[in-house]
Amino acid sequence: MTATPEFDLFVIGAGSGGVRAARIAASYGAKVAIAEEYRVGGTCVIRGCVPKKLMVYASRFRDEFEDASGFGWTLGAVPTFDWATLIANKDREIARLEGLYRATLSRNGVTLYESRAILEAPGRIALPATGECAQAKTILVATGARPALDKTIPGIEHAITSNEVFHLPKQPGRIVIVGGGYIAVEFACVFNGLGSAVTLVHRGDKLLRGFDDDLRDDLAVDMQKRGVELKLNAKLSGIAKTADGLTVTLTTGETLRCDTVMCATGRLPNTHGIGLEAAGVTLGANGRVVVDAQSCSSSPSVYAVGDVTDRVNLTPVAIREGHAFADSVYGSKPWVTDHEMIPSAVFSTPEIGTVGLSEQQAHAQYPQVDVYKTRFRPMKAVLAGRDERMLMKLVVDAATDRVLGCHVLGADAAEIVQMAAIAMRMGATKAEFDGTMALHPSAAEELVTLRDKWVAPRA
Fold first, then answer.
1. Annotated catalytic sites, by residue?
2. Are 248 and 397 members of one domain?
3. Is residue 70 part of a domain?
4. 90 shares its domain with 126
């Protein structure tokens, strides 16, 4: 009989957070194993941030072709787009990145099990795909989240999610996207840019709940200018397959004809069927692993990081949480992840970059708030003849002059806000923004030249 291998750490899930934790723990001398049932790299690398961003880039070339004539360029043949070429090249890059993740684990001496992992008891893991078992002093759950589908909707089996969208055999001519979060918005813009007819259905009256209202309003206007049809205050009530595609019925009574329906209506922590209850782990109402600031669950030998905890569901957060766990438990360098002042982006077209409090959140938390904002036509849009405006906005605590929020809508918004986030984490004031020399000509210089407070119009 083969002895059951024993590890200091067993990581369930080889996504960004799990791989980081495994690598760092192993670098401190821990004996580490990791299990992954699908592909190494997790949602972000395999069917999330990375392939999505590649598709975003592809979708934006249409603007470049259209704008070129304003700068003196004459294009020969009409540009054409080939979906199969994009998908093949995307798949090649994802395979390359997966190889790098595998190499990182191997180089650090981490044992990889290509199997689902199930906790049979505290410290004991079953690996059904290989028929093996393992023992570990500590378990780290890093299984991420999965798209949620409302199984009560008739015909929902005809819909795809963000998992399947990267593997469509052909580009849909007409697509209905259900949802109002960043995944729904980003893919609406992607397919619109690639030439599909796009309808976005959202139950709320505005897109992107939780974002600053000016960003939400301005993006909706820009998306409609580009041809995305918005159906707000409406829900999906049914999908029927027809001879030439799909018919979508909304709660408003309206029907839509399309080739593909994509549901992006939320994600759920991936905790079902991995035996967490057997290990004494408390789960939240949506299945999330309940953890403390050190990412420890109710079972002292089981930790969890990333989307499976449903704290802040962003890849860099999962990586930071995984690193903090490994440093603290194996490196004698305890620290916790700070979940405040996290920059984020929506890779829509135009793009959103944001960090800190929205104007609405700031008013709820501070007695007096100053708002500085500007809308302007970017230099590139002038010669191109494009009807496009950027939004830049700073939200400031009037009492301390500290910048509480920075919000940008427009080209390269994410790149701009990443730099602003550094200053804001250091407690930068509006006066310090004002005292910074402008980089001219650039769009970002508007953040250090805003002088006039915005006053809301009287009702």
1. 440
2. no
3. yes
4. yes
Say how far apart CA 310 and CA 305 lie, in whole Å. Answer: 9
Residue 267's DSSP bridge partners are 147
The alpha carbons of the chain give a radius of gyration, in whole angstroms, of: 24
For residue 118, the one-letter residue type is: I
Name the residue among 131, 130, 139, 145 with its Cα closest to residue 276: 139
Verify that 169 and 43 share a domain, yes or no.
no
Q: How many distinct structural domains can be found in the chain? A: 3
Burial of 88 (0-12, 13-18, 19+ CB in 10 A): exposed
Q: How far apart are CA 447 and CA 420, in angstroms?
A: 9
Q: Is 104 in contact with 19 (CB distance < 8 Å)?
A: yes
Judge whether 436 and 419 are in contact, CB under 8 Å. Answer: no
**85 is written with which tokens?**
């070429």
Q: Dihedral sign, CA of 422, 424, 426, 431?
A: positive
Classify residue 111 as left (phi > 0), alpha (psi -120 to 50) or beta.
beta
208 DSSP assignment: S
Distance between CA atoms of 373 and 355, rounded to whole angstroms?
A: 15
**Cβ partners under 8 Å of residue 277, min gap 6:** 283
Instruction: Give percent helix, percent strand, percent coil of the chain, each to the nearest 5.
Output: 35, 25, 40
Range of the domain at 396: 350-448
Q: Is 100 exposed, middle or buried (0-12, 13-18, 19+ CB in 10 A)?
A: exposed
CB distance 346 to 185 below 8 Å:
yes
Burial of 333 by CB count in 10 Å (0-12 exposed, 13-18 middle, 19+ buried)? Answer: exposed
Residue recorded with tokens 């057997």: 278
Q: Do the domain assignments include residue 38? A: yes
Same domain, 64 and 25: yes
Q: Other C-beta atoms within 10 Å of 56: how many?
A: 18
- Give this prediction's pTM: 0.95
Q: Do 133 and 244 have their domain in common?
A: no
Task: Give, for all 459 residues of the chain, the pLDDT tens digit.
Answer: 468 999 999 999 999 999 999 999 999 999 999 999 999 999 999 999 999 999 999 999 999 999 999 999 998 888 899 999 999 999 999 999 999 999 999 999 999 999 999 999 889 999 999 999 999 999 999 999 999 999 999 999 999 999 999 999 999 999 999 999 999 999 999 999 999 999 999 999 999 999 999 999 999 999 999 999 999 999 999 999 999 999 999 999 999 999 999 999 999 999 999 999 989 999 998 999 999 999 999 999 999 999 999 999 999 999 999 999 999 999 999 999 999 999 999 999 999 999 999 999 999 999 999 999 999 999 999 988 898 899 999 999 999 999 999 999 999 999 999 999 999 999 999 999 999 999 999 999 999 999 999 877 654
Q: At what angle do helices 16-27 and 315-330 cross, to 10 degrees?
A: 20
